[in-house]
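Not sure how to ask, but would you mind making up any protein sequence you like and the C-alpha cells describing how it folds?
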Amino acid sequence: MAEELQKVHLYYDEINKVKVIENNVYKETQDLQENCKDYENKVRDFGNIIGSLLDMLNKLGENVEKQKMAAIGATNLLKSIEKDRESEQTRLQAEISDKSLILEQLDSEYDALQILDATQSETVEYLTQLR
C-alpha cells in the first residue's frame, strides 16, 4: 500500500500523517525554512547594528560640527584680540612719540632756564661785588 501511495506522490511522515512530498524533501524544506528564519534574524540584527552605528555617527558628526564652530569662534576672537593689541600698540607708540616731544621741549626749556639761572647768578654776583 505504501508503494501505491508513493506512485501518486503521497507519503507517510513519522507520525503517520499523509504528506504530498517525500520525507527527505520535507526535511530539507524545514531546514531551509529554519535557515531562512536564522538569516532573517541575522539581517534584522545587522540592520539594528547599522542603525545604532548611524545614530552614533550622526551624534559624532554633530559633535564635530559643534567643535568646528567653537574653533572658528575662538579663531575669530583671537584675530579680534590681535587687532585690538595692534591698535593699542599704535596708540601707545603715538603717546610715546608725543611724550618724547614734550620731554625734548622740556629739556630745551630746562637748558635755557639753567643758562638764564647761570646768567642771573653771575649778574647777581657782579652786582653784589659792586656794592
About this structure: The CA atoms of residues 29 and 84 lie 81 Å apart. Helices lie at 2-7, 23-130. The longest strand covers residues 11-12. The mean pLDDT is 90.
